[in-house]
Description:
Dihydrodipicolinate Reductase, domain 2, Alpha-Beta Plaits, ACT_dom, homoserine dehydrogenase activity, alpha/beta, HDH_CS, 6-stranded parallel sheet
Amino acid sequence: xxxxxxxxxxxxxxxxxxxxxxxxxxxxxxxxxxxxxxxxxxxxxxxxxxxxxxxxxxxxxxxxxxxxxxxxxxxxxxxxxxxxxxxxxxxxxxxxxxxxxxxxxxxxxxxxxxxxxxxxxxxxxxxxxxxxxxxxxxxxxxxxxxxxxxxxxxxxxxxxxxxxxxxxxxxxxxxxxxxxxxxxxxxxxxxxxxxxxxxxxxxxxxxxxxxxxxxxxxxxxxxxxxxxxxxxxxxxxxxxxxxxxxxxxxxxxxxxxxxxxxxxxxxxxxxxxxxxxxxxxxxxxxxxxxxxxxxxxxxxxxxxxxxxxxxxxxxxxxxxxxxxxxxxxxxxxxxxxxxxxxxxxxxxxxxxxxxxxxxxxxxxxxxxxxxxxxxxxxxxxxxxxxxxxxxxxxxxxxxxxxxxxxxxxxxxxxxxxxxxxxxxxxxxxxxxxxxx
Length: 436
């Protein structure tokens, strides 16, 4: 096989990175694969804007069917993002017998089961390394070198925007709104940052990690998701005083036939490796029964790292085609008929240590009322810190609990937040400091 023809849908930042990589390292790839990767068509609604890369005449088109229906194109790369029309394009390409490479975590988190079933029926591959962690090769490692392990936990810092904001808040003592505005000016955050800062992007990625680690279907709606917009500089400072850093953490844990699936701000010890994942970088920690803890670290987004992951998937499929193999493995690394439906543990049933910050009026008996309500709900206090009174006669009171149930914390706070000595809703951050 002298060459393998590729079609690309979506000529944005990552698409331009794919073109750049093939142009710069095409000869290297040919030496490694024994065949040439030839980008035959690129489909995008906008084919006039300069992307900073050169494209041969006739390659660009606004007609996506020139990619989806060309019998010569063996691999389709989908980089438009979102649910539709990405879903329709991918399913049409599969129906036409084409292998799929995508970076679209949202599409697979919501429509993955339908896409995987279509790919099984047609005997084609669906690979998506770039959908989680940008250029970090975590998904291929789970499917490949780590396939002999039963995984117990997966923890991830998976959104560079959130990690950049929290890093700046930690290092400079700045407030969330101030750092977010700066991140938007630098291009690290979108004009509408909701998808990132409210944890939705991270939840999409966690769904894929859980599916590969535990061999289960995951409904995005069952993933408990909280963002970082409620984190204040005072929380960052208190965390430092207690020996923690705050990160937006994706958490997956296996508990028999149930799994925990949650995304939320989390305090982790400052001496823990994930605490040193700063700026726009991502970090992912897996724990397997034979390999033990393994950590992956690198750039989680950007043109070149993501393009590297996309072309890695293309190369994987190309090797199969050279060997005459059309579908070497199922997308999730488990046989299609072996993927389970593990139950997601309700958030109220999870147990954790908790940081709780109360903004209370400085009056006698405040601590007694708070501690009494906590005790009434089976919550034991590990430590407490109180700072000086502010100008409005309120004082921040921080309590660190021993391990408690989420539902008990919620019940206690539903009572405490009604006390006339409490000025505003309490802020809660979960703690992960007892990892295997």
